[in-house]
Design goal:
It is a single chain. The chain contains twelve helices and no strands. By secondary structure, it is mainly alpha-helical. The chain has one domain.
């Protein structure tokens, strides 16, 4: 892997982790489009840890308040969020532990299937954004809503769905305001990224030194871009909602289909 490839993939991860466009789909599709070799598990860990740093830095004050209030005043607005995040994390963590390897093996090179998932979820995102009531503030959500958003997160294992996309869409369906759905999606991302990243890092710790240069490049690139992506999304949803990401999904699905058909000829 060249430094350019490491930077490019870091940008894809930073954008795709927090924008509802699916980072896993992008990390599969773009190397295929460019004819690059598949990146290693160690590099994949670096990308995810970078986005973990991004969300922790961006929301560090929120996380500090949530943890402190969650322990000292669990029934306060911020205190309840700690337990909502824990409840929302359990389904995704359990599903990932049981099925991540199976899903990865099935979807890894199913480019046409990924294109279909990108497009179908694009329609879902567009439709939900159009009908969403957008009434409930983050401070007014309840444990059932958190649990349902957590269950939806389990489906993010499938490339093309998007963890942020499915959790935000579920939040909108449940009546959350767009900014509230986005913020809760970001806040609940840290535990799941940390858990998956820690497990993968422990499994591949002996290979980090051999790929340290690309590891560092991927880590810092995804962290910087991820930080900017969070800021961008929180700003754009107030003005334009999520439709722009649905349009992008349709475009990318069309590009994948075109390349797939050209290479099949």
């Amino acid at each position: 892997m060249t430094a350019f490839q490491a930077i490019f993939l870091g940008i894809l991860q930073g954008l795709g982790e927090f924008l509802p466009i699916s980072s896993s789909a992008h990390l599969i599709i773009f190397p295929w489009l460019f004819g690059w070799k598949e990146h290693s598990l160690v590099f994949d860990v670096a990308l995810h840890l970078g986005t973990l740093l991004a969300v922790l830095v961006y929301f560090w004050k929120d996380y500090l308040d949530i943890v402190v209030q969650g322990i000292a005043k669990p029934k306060s607005e911020k205190g309840k969020l700690l337990w909502f995040i824990i409840v929302a994390t359990i389904p995704g963590a359990l599903f990932g532990y049981l099925f991540e390897n199976i899903v990865e093996e099935v979807f890894r090179k199913q480019y046409l299937l990924i294109a279909i998932v990108l497009a179908v979820f694009g329609f879902i995102l567009y439709y939900v954004d159009s009908i969403a009531k957008n009434k409930i503030e983050l401070s007014k959500m309840n444990v059932l809503q958190a649990a349902l958003i957590g269950v939806s997160q389990a489906f993010a294992l499938f490339p093309g769905i998007s963890r942020s996309g499915i959790t935000m869409t579920t939040g909108l369906l449940l009546g959350l305001k767009k900014e509230a759905a986005a913020k809760f999606s970001f806040l609940m991302s840290a535990p799941i990224i940390l858990g998956a990243g820690a497990v993968s890092l422990l499994k591949n710790i002996n290979h980090v030194s051999a790929e340290f240069s690309n590891f560092a490049i991927g880590f810092f690139t995804s962290a910087i871009v991820g930080f900017l992506a969070i800021h961008f999304l929180l700003g754009i949803v107030k003005k334009s909602g999520f439709k722009i990401f649905a349009y992008y999904r349709f475009f990318l699905a069309a590009v994948i289909l075109a390349f797939y058909l050209l290479r099949a000829v």
